[in-house]
Amino acid sequence: MPKRVAVLQSNYIPWKGYFDIIHDVDEFIFLDDVQYTRQDWRNRNRIKTAHGVRWLTIPVGTSLHRRICDVKLPAGEWADDHWRRIELSYAAAPHFGRYRAVLEEIYRDRKWTRLADFNQQLIRTISEWLGITTRFRDSRVLGTRGQAQDRVLDLVGRAGADVYVSGPAARAYIEPQRFARAGIELHWKDYSGYPEYPQFYPPFVHEVTVLDLLFHTGPEAPYYIWGWR
């Protein structure tokens, strides 16, 4: 069977499309030894509240002179604040109680020093809840070289990939012919068509953290990500 691989930066409690890609592949590589980007998904995501969609943002500063894996988490009450806001918005959701204890432990009882480690732990935990069996690896372990497309090609080559699954935003810099010359099939992920599910505070919004889906649908969450296809 062809080996399918995806490579993405770790994001903060990502939306369902991120887990759709993870589910699509045999191996998922966190690409966190690249430059941190501001006003992106690395340190923030959105939740639904009674007052509309609101951002949860981890205050990690604005410096661009660091890699994602080098971004330090600040001292202070941000983790407690994020947990309180999640709890306030979703405590009445049908399946909030199913995930509450583990999430509260991650937010309140464990001490995190690096953004990438915190993000990766949340992503791995949520993947388990979704029944995903994909293998996770970290690009730092693979010792990658190059920038942008060169780095991705190096990573998928080291991983022994036959198929590379990419998000659509990478069309801006990926040259399909280079993957073809390397003998790697390029597959573009399509995020369209996700069905709506019962969600607090209409109108419905797809572009929120996957926690929204889990709290509302519980074990049925995989259907709304990939099962409907």
Descriptive report:
This protein is of the alpha/beta class and 229 residues long. The chain has one domain. Helices cover 38% and strands 14% of the residues. Strands 5-2-1-6-7 form a 5-stranded parallel beta sheet, with helices on both faces. Strands 3-4 form a two-stranded antiparallel sheet. α1 links the parallel β1 and β2. The longest helix is centred in the middle third of the chain and has 15 residues, at 115-129. The chain is globular. The model has no long low-confidence stretch (mean pLDDT 95).
Topology, element by element:
Layout: E1 4-8, H1 16-24, E2 27-30, E3 44-49, E4 52-57, H2 78-90, H3 96-109, H4 115-129, E5 135-138, H5 139-142, H6 148-158, E6 163-166, H7 176-181, E7 185-188, H8 210-217, H9 221-227
Parallel strand pairs: 1-2, 1-6, 2-5, 6-7
Antiparallel strand pairs: 3-4
Helix pairs in contact: 2-3
Q: Could you name the key traits of this structure?
A:
229 residues; alpha/beta; five-stranded parallel sheet; two-stranded antiparallel sheet; 7 strands
Q: How much of the sequence is in beta strands? A: 5-15%
Number of helices: 9
Sheet/helix structural class: alpha/beta
* Total domain count: 1
Shape: globular
Spans of at least 5 consecutive residues whose pLDDT stays below 50 are none
* Overall residue-averaged pLDDT value: 95
The biggest sheet, with number of strands, parallel, antiparallel or mixed sense and barrel status, is: 5 strands, parallel
Sequence of strands across the biggest β-sheet: 5-2-1-6-7
CA gyration radius, whole angstroms: 18 Å
List the secondary-structure elements in sequence, H or E.
EHEEEHHHEHHEHEHH
What's the total number of strands?
7
Helix share bin: 25-40%
Distance between the termini: 21 Å
